Amino acid sequence: MPAHLRVFPRTIENESADRQQPSIRVRVGDLFPLLAQAHRGNYLWLNDFEDDEICITEDLYEVLRAFQAYRPSA
User: Fold this and answer.
1) Where are the domains of the chain?
2) Which of 14, 30, 43, 67 satisfies CB 3.0 to 4.6 Å to 38 for a cystine?
3) pLDDT score, position 70
4) Which positions ≥6 away from 28 have C-beta within 8 Å?
5) How far apart are CA 31 and CA 59, in angstroms?
6) What are phi and psi of 27, to 5 degrees?
7) Residue 67 phi/psi, 5° resolution?
8) Phi/psi class of residue 63: alpha, beta or left (left: φ > 0; alpha: ψ in -120 to 50)?
């Protein structure tokens, strides 16, 4: 007889317990090539971190927002 699996909904308490607190500082220049390579190669482990948040400086945020809105002319 096959085993029956039960699925339990995640609670907010469990979510906060599962999250690791940031503790390692990494230069953006070191991070970008690795993320770009993982994205180009469609590495599945990258999807595990899609919902993670990162802290960035305000000036980088402004540049990224401007770049996001940028549409090159043809």
Assistant:
1) 26-74
2) 43
3) 86
4) 60
5) 18
6) -70, 140
7) -65, -40
8) alpha
DSSP string, the chain: -PPPP---PPPHHHHHHHPPPP-----HHHHHHHHHHHHHTT-GGGGGGTT------HHHHHHHHHHHH-----
Q: Which residues contact 7 (CB under 8 A, 6 or more apart)?
A: none
Phi, psi (deg, nearest 5) at residue 13: -60, -45
Q: Are 26 and 56 in contact (CB under 8 A)?
A: no
